[in-house]
Amino acid sequence: MKRKLIVIIAVASLVILPAIVSLIWFCVEQYKSAKALELELLSLQAKFTQYKIDNDSVKQLDTKIMGELKNAHIETINLRSAVDAGVVQLLIKTNSIERDTGTTGISVRKAVQLAESARQDYYALRQGIEQNRILITGWQEYYCKVIAPKNQTEYLCKDLSWQ
Hints:
Structural class: mainly alpha
Strand content: under 5%
Strand order of the largest sheet: 1-2
Order of helices and strands: HEEH
Helix content: over 70%
Low-confidence stretches: none
Distance between the termini: 95 Å
Number of strands: 2
């Protein structure tokens, strides 16, 4: 009977010992996997936080650019209204040469005004130039604040007018 008990214990230890070792190995692997997932979660959280910060700065920049575009448009509308009301005149800047009229000895200077059709072109050109200036400066600012630091091209941002 003792022999049977010893054989049973020996067989049981041959079955149970590998099972215990396998269970311990499984637990260690699960622990390692959990730690790796925890590190990946922390990394993703940090990336998401940085994304939100970058996104907020892009939103602020977008709001600034859109505000400048709106202000430029309002400025052009105000100028158009002032010219139409006669408060302001659009004059062409010229280099005038004073000429003697000959008989009277009086020098003649004239201010040249834009024709109505030319005024409309002037407003459109002025609006387009201002929009382009604002958009180009906005893109430069976006590039220099958001993109350049990420790809080490800050040297492209030296001596820009918006800084």
